[in-house]
Give the backbone structure.
Amino acid sequence: MLKPAKKNLWALALAIPLLAVGVAAVKPRAQPQTVPDTFWADRRAAARIEARLTHPEADRYRSRAPAGGCPVPAEPMPLGPLARMEAREDWGGIAAAYALEGEWNQAASFLERLPASPERDSDLAAVALARGDHERALRLLDGALAAKPGLTQALWNRALVFREMGLTLRASELFEQVAKRNEQGWGREAHAQALALREATLERQRQWKAAREATMALVDDPKAPLPMDAARQLPGTVRGVFYEAVRAAPSKERVLALLPLAKELDRVQGGSVLGDYVQRVAKRDFSRRSDLARQYAETLRAGQAVPEALLDRARLSGDEDIYLGALLRTRKGTLSHLKDTLERIKRLEDPWFTYVADRDQAFKEVSDGAWWKAEQRLFGALQRCRENGLSVRCLELEKRLAIFYYDMQRVTESEQHARVLWAGARQLREWELEFSALEVLSQVARSRNDLGSARAYLEEWMARGPTRSCAWPHVQLAHLHYLDLRPQDARRELDVAAACADNPMEPVFGATLAELSRSSSGAHDVEWLSRVTANALAGPVVQAGDRVYADYLEGRFHLDRDRAKGESHLRNAIKEADTLPRGDALGRESWALSYSSLAVDAGRAGEFPKVVELMAAQLGTPVPARCALAASVHAERTVLVALGPQGEVKGHYDDTRKEPFARADSSRLVPEALRKTLSSCDHVDVLAWAPVFGRTDLLPSDIAWSFRLGRAHGPRPVASAQAARRLVVAGVEAPSLLQLPRLPAWTPDAEPGSAPPNVLSGSDATPSRVLESMADATEIEIHAHGITDPSISGASLVVLSPEVNGRYALTADVVREQRLKGEPTVFLAACSAGRTTALQSTEPFSLPAAFIDSGARAVLASTVDIPDAAGRFFDGVRRRIHAGSPAAVALRDERQAWLARDGRAGWTRSVLLVEKAD
C-alpha cells in the first residue's frame, strides 16, 4: 500500500509547481479576454469625438447624445490596460484610447511612432481636424484614400472636414458614400448627416431663388404679389432686383404699386430712401418714360447688355435711375463711363449705390497704378458699410477686397476677406455670392500651395449642380492635379472638360495639356492644342503676350516629341518676350517657362554645361567658370549642375518627384556628390529661378554661398568711409488699418571716421522720402514690418509710414522702377522681406530681386519672421563686410557665431543673400 501512496505523493509534488505555472500562464492570457473588452467598451461609451478611428475596437459604433452644452471633465485613463498595450508596443491602441478621450496631443505622439500607412494617416487627419488644420487633414485623407479607396474611416473623416469648411453639399455626397456601405450604426448616422446637410443647403438656394424670381415677376406681371416675406428674410436680394422693377415699370400706377414693398425694405434696412425713390419716379412724365421703361425691361428679360442707343436715349431723357441702371449693365467697360456713373450716384444720395462708386473708383485707381488709394477706399467703404448695416453690400465689398489683395499677391489678406464673404453669404442666404466665395477661396488656396483645399472648394462648386459652366471647374481641377503631380487624375479631368460643349479651350487648358502630354499622350492632343493656340491668336486684336504664350505652348508640347521643333518654338518665345515691356505678365510667364523647359530638357539629355549657360542667360549673369551651382525645377523634373574649384562639372537629373516642390524639403535637393564637389570652394554662386530661387536651405549653413542675379556694370568704386552714404529707415509709424504692433526703436551706432547716417523715422519714413534717399545711398538699412503669408512663399512688402494720400508700402514693383546710383548693399531687417513667389511661372518676384534689378550690389533679407534682435545680426554682417569680408563669407561667419552662442538663433539660417556678378 505504501508504493502507490508514494507514487501519488510524487505526482502531487510535481503537480503543485505545474499548477502554479499554469495559473501564471493562464492569467495573462485571460486579461486580454476580459480587461481590454471592458476597457474599450468604457472608452467608447465615454467617447467625446465625432471622427472615426481605424482601431477596430475604437471604431465600433456608439450613439452620441448631446451633453447639453456643459463641459464634462475627462475620465481618468486606467493605467493597467495602457501599460499592457505599451508592453506589446500597441501604439495604435494607445493612440485610439487617448483620441476617444479627446486627448489629441497624446494620440498624435503615439500615432507618429507607427509606420506610414493609410490607416495611420486617417487617424492623424482626425487629429488635424480636431486642431482646425483642415489643410493638413485633407492632404492626409487624400493620400490615404488614394492608397486605399475602401478605407471607410478616411471617407467619413473627409466628409467631416468638408462639413467643417462649410462645403456642405460635397460633405453630403461623401456621407452618402459611407451610408451605402451599410455599416452597423455608422450607415444610419451617415445617411442622417447627408440628408440634413443637403436639405439645409438646398433650402438656402430655394429661398434665394424664390426671392429673386418673386421680385423679378414684378417686371412682367402687374398682378404678381409683392414679396413681402422675402423682403424681410432676404432684403439684400429683393432690394437688388427691386430697382430693376421700378425702372421697368411702364406707368405711374405700376410704380406706386411697388410702394408697400419699398416701405417694407426701408423698415427692415432703415431710412426712407426707397419710399422716396418710388414717390420721385411716380412724378415723372410717363408719356415719355413709358416707352423707355419698356425697352429697358426687354433687355432685362433677355439678359442682354444695354445697347448704346438705349443708353444715349436714357441719358437725354433725364430719367436718372434708368440711365444709371443702363450704365451698370453696359458691356462697354467700367472706366469708359466712370464719370457719368459717379455723377448719377452722387445725385441719388442712395447708400446702396455708394458701394458701386467706391468699387469703380478703386478699379480706376488700380489701373492707374495707385493701388494704395484703392485699398484705402475699399477698406473705408467696408467700415462705413458695416456701420450702416447694408449687409449684402458689405459682402460685395469683402469680395472686392479679396480679389484686390489676391491680384496684389497678398494672399493672407485675400483669404481673410474671402472667408468673411463665405461665412456671410451663407448666413444671409446669398446663394450667388457663395459661388463667388468658392471661386476666390479656390484660387487663394492654390496660391498658398494648399492644393487639397483648392480641390475641395471646386468640388463643392461642382456639387451645386450643372446650372453653371461645365468646362471651367474640370479645367481648374485638371490644373490642380497637374500641380500636385497627379497626371492620371489631371488627364481624366482634362478629358471631361474637353467633352463639355462650353469649353473655350483657353490657355490654362493648353498649359495643362502641354505638360501632361510628355507622360501620357491622348488621341486628340494635337487637335486640342491647335484649337487653344488658334483661339489665343483669334479676334480683331491679339496682344503680343498672347502670341508669345502660343509659341511657348507649341514648344513645350513638341519638345519631347520633336526636340528641334520644340526648342525652336521655345527660343522664339524667349526672343519675342525680351522685346515686350516687363509688365506684360503673360509674356514674362512664357519667357520663364520656356527657359525652365529648355534647362530641364538639357539635363535630361545629359548636356550639363548647357544647363549652366541657360540658367546664366535667364538670370542675366555671366556664365561661371568655377564654384557654382545651377538648379532648375519644373514640375516632377529636377536638374542640378555643380562646378567645382577647378571647373569640374558634376550633373544630376531626376524626373521621379512625387510631391510638389512647394511642399518639399529643399535641404535634400542637392545630392551629396554635388555638395562634395562644392565643399572646398571659398564661396558658391547659386544660379536658380523660381521656385528654387529664395530657398535658403539648398546648401549647409557652414558654406558661404549666395544667389546670383544680374551683372554689375563695372568694378565697384572704392569709396572712403567719409564718402559712404548710409541710409537707415527705422521707427516707422505703420497705418492703423494694418493693426501692426510698434517696433522697438533702432538707433544706429556712430562709427569712427564715417559720416553720420541719414536716418528716416516716424512720419518722415514715407515711401516717397525713402525712395528719394535711396537713389545715391551706398548702404541701405530698413528696420520695419514686412507683410506676407507665413504659410506660403509669397512676395512680401515693407510697411513704411503713410503718405498724405495713404500710400505706405515699399513693394518690389516700385523698387524695380528706381535707379540706385550708389550701387548699395541693402539690409532688409523686416519679417519675411526676402520671401519670394513660389510659382514657377513667374520670375523671382521679391524685394531682394527688385533691389538687384534697380542697381544694388547685394541684398540681405530674412525669408521668415525675425525677432527684435535681428537688427544686431544684420549690423554684425554689415561690420564684417566693412572689415573686408565678401558678403557671403560675412553672412556665414556671423551666422555661425550666433548659432554657437544662442540656441534660439535658428532663424539666421533663413537669411537670404542675393548678389550681382562682378
Remarks:
- The two ends are 114 Å apart (CA to CA).
